[in-house]
UniProtKB/TrEMBL annotation:
Signal sequence coordinates: 1-23
Entry keyword Signal: yes
Pfam families: BatD, DUF7939
Biological source species: Methylomonas defluvii
Keyword annotations: Signal
Annotated ranges, domain DUF7939: 466-541
Protein name: BatD family protein
Amino acid sequence: MHRHSYSWLLYGLLMLLSAAIQAAEIQVAVDRNPVGINESFQITFTASEEPDGNPEFAPLQENFEILSQQRSTSSSWVNGKSSRTEQWIVRAMAKQAGELFIPPIAFGADSSKPLKLVVNENTAAPQGNDDIFLDVTATPEQPYVQSQVLYTLKLFRKVQITQASLSEPEIKDALVEKLGEDSTYATQVKGVDYWVTERKYAIFPQQSGVFTIAPLILNAEYLSNQRQPRFNGFFNRPDTETRRVASKAITLNVQAVPASFKGPNWLSAESLTLSEAWSDAGLQTKVGEPLTRTLTLSAKGTTVGQLPELLDKTAIDGIKTYPDQPLLKEDKESDGLTALREEKIAFIPSKPGEYTLPALDIVWFNTKTQKTETAHLPSVKLTALAGSTDAQNSAPPATSSTPQEPVTNPMITSPITVTNSSDTRFWQAVSATLALGWLLTIVVFYRRPSGKVSTNKPVERVPETAMEKTLKRACWENNPQAAKQALLQWGKAEFGAESLGAIAAHCPEALREEILALNRLLYSGRNQDWQGRNLWQAFSAKPAAVNSKGKNDDGLEPLFKI
């Protein structure tokens, strides 16, 4: 009987586990957040597996008016596996302002999670009874230097636009990044119905002082008679009118670094997290074998160029440190920029024992609380065990008088000392191969004809305006790797050159010297010492005939794709 009761208990646990496994996960998202009190917005429920039942949207009606519902299903077959996605799209409008919650929606036994939504009172008002007008806002208007400013553009219209183009925000000494995709929704302003197209940017002023964001200019062509469009023939277009609309200018009072901030490097953000992971959770390895540490720094409301290096370069007796190239990433969401820096460091002990890595502290300024905070990782103890006899024999003795040959791996910034004869012969062969490759490269470079590239090989053209923006940002952030990539794109498009040295040969003297200096620094491994201002000044001063290639006549970016 006792055994029978245990069987029933086990059966019940298995049933609960099976139900948990089979439960469909339902994601919920909105097309923008916050929204206005009289603005329609879109709620999307997504299920990667078929949920238990149809959704019950009745709980939404407490705080929201449901305008329409739509369901779609998509299937795919990848690598022999099928996947199915179902979506329910609800267009709604809030009944009141404030912080509201989209409640959990039941799909039979399955359910979505609640989602917080901020609903603001509408502040935009049409200028008279305008058919088209622009509204722009910037938050905050008194930011700290290098801190994020969210710049929001709203195009209000009650006519059908057939074609339009819009300029981008311009501000001196600032980085400007477009955030996410444009969103379109309906709203009502003072009893008048409008369609709104919303676009967001993140602006990062690089200098303190008073700066003005220039007005945005919209050129729009729209139907002049909405109700009864007139055609002058079957192949003729309907009657249209063209309008040029300007937004207001916005002034930013950019504040300097506060005197209370005592960190080694200025870093401002809305939020920041610092974490670590190890290849061995026990923090234990053998002599001569690597133990890898992964450090991750993520900050919202800043650029990746502002994130500091995470590796502590203090030498530790008996252990070698080999950092990999850092992973740099930026996510451009509608609520701002999120920057991520990930560093992997391999620690290889040369003798058994315990080693202590120092604590890691990142001092940063919280722009929401207006206070200095510190992200902290405690000190770490690593244990190195004695390796195999072969590993110990191949390791260099502490007092060895044998001449040692340093060998540099292109993926490792620190030299590795090798004394084993077979390893030496291997690396000598590698070095000879690399030397031969360099020799062939030099021969090919000096034998190729100067001047224009042969027309037999098509050259992919990169729009110069985009490249200039990338290079300017790399120089402002003192990021030599990013500057190199931007120059390579430019050099390939302009000259068909595919190395910094080849690009420099086509440039005026000042720019040539800066490019060659960047090339030397990248090979030296002292990337953190680079200052990009001189390179950008030299690039900006090159002949205007080169600068003008690839630009649009009016410099306006299409707002609507017709």
